[in-house]
Amino acid sequence: MHAGLFERIDWGTASVLAETLRAADGIGVDSGRFRLRTDVDTIADLHRLERDLEGAPDDACPHLRRWFSGP
């Protein structure tokens, strides 16, 4: 959705989160995080995240919710 957000990230390292948050800040993207402590690396992880969103406050992750709901 935002050009540059996932560029120049050292994937598969412990610094992915920090680098991604720094990239978001650098291009003016407001970012937030869930209290979950799991990655989303597989389709099963993505389905789990979708289920987790059902129990989150309605205003949590509006763009992600929209993406899950489809076009």
Architecture overview:
The chain folds into two domains: 1-33, no CATH class; 38-71, no CATH class. The protein has helices at residues 16-26, 43-54, 62-69. With 71 residues, the chain is an all-alpha fold. The model has no long low-confidence stretch (mean pLDDT 86). The protein contains three helices and no strands. It is 44% helix and 0% strand.
Helix and strand topology:
Layout: H1 16-26, H2 43-54, H3 62-69
Q: Which descriptors apply to this entry?
A:
single chain; 71 residues; mainly alpha; 2 domains; 3 helices; globular
Q: How many domains, as an integer?
A: 2
The general outline is globular
Low-confidence stretches: none
Q: Main beta sheet: strand number and arrangement?
A: none
Strand content: under 5%
Q: Give the number of DSSP strands.
A: 0
Cα-atom radius of gyration: 13 Å
Mean pLDDT value = 86
Question: What is the N-to-C order of secondary-structure elements (H for helix, E for strand)?
Answer: HHH
**Helix content estimate:** 40-55%
**What's the tally of helices?**
3
Class computed from helices, strands and strand pairing: mainly alpha
Report, as a whole number of angstroms, the end-to-end distance: 14 Å
How would you concisely characterize the structure shown here?
The protein has helices spanning 16-26, 43-54, 62-69. The chain has 71 residues and is an all-alpha fold.
